[in-house]
Amino acid sequence: MNFLDKIFLTLIETTPTKEVFVNLHASSRNLSVVQDLINNGQKVLDVGCGLGLTGEYLTKKGFSVTGVELDTALAERVNNYISYEIHNKNAAHLEYEDNSFDSAIFMYVFHHIPIQKHPEVLKEIERILKPGGKMIMVEPDPNSKFDLIWDKIFFADNFYHYFDVYGKFSLIRKGNMRIFEVKKEDFSALEFSYVGEVK
Question: Where is each Methyltransferase type domain found (predicted)?
């Protein structure tokens, strides 16, 4: 848990502002676009869910959300104020049954996973997705100076730089944001290549 998470957690826990944070997060991360890519009522896995704001938004929109977060302390605190369940798990070892979820969402998460670990994570997500399932991966544009500075300041310990993606997927661009929609059957063709400086 970094100091920025601690600040946001304190604000959310001590003041009646959770809805404000959820709405700001939804706007800044184009969650209405993400919502349109998945069918209402589906079972959604929010991977690397952090403060839980993506899952909270989708829960209120009628989705059945489960969150996973690698940071034990963060997962424990966030479970105290959200309306769905977060499990402390590693994305490469989820321990859910095969074909458990309709969709998996990675909201600004993949650039915090070392690129050599991507195939392992994708294999696990492929396993837990139902036939016809999909992954929604939201990532900054590699040329976004703002996001680069933000990650280097606030997430320096686990920021591995931005990447290009190759393979079969649908791509939506919104400002400095890329929204990838990848069907389960196309996971094996995905390739990642770092852009520019690499940690």
Answer: 45-136
83-118 pLDDT, tens digit each: 999 999 999 999 999 999 999 999 999 999 988 899
Q: Which domains does the chain have, with CATH numbers?
A: 3-194 (3.40.50.150)
* DSSP string for residues in 47-76: ET-TTSHHHHHHHHTT-EEEEE-S-HHHHH
Output the six-digit token pair for 118: 């991507």
37, 84, 180 from 139: Cα distances, Å: 16, 24, 8
Neighbours of 108 (CB within 10 A): 19
For 23, the token pair is 């709405």
Round to whole Å and give the CA distance between 197 and 188: 26
Give the phi and the psi of residue 76 in degrees, each rounded to 5: -65, -45
Per residue in 69-82, pLDDT (tens digit) is 999 999 999 999 99
Give pTM, 2 decimals. 0.92
- Give the β-pairing of 170-174 and 64-68: unpaired
Residue type, 199: K
Task: Specify the DSSP class assigned to residue 185.
Answer: G
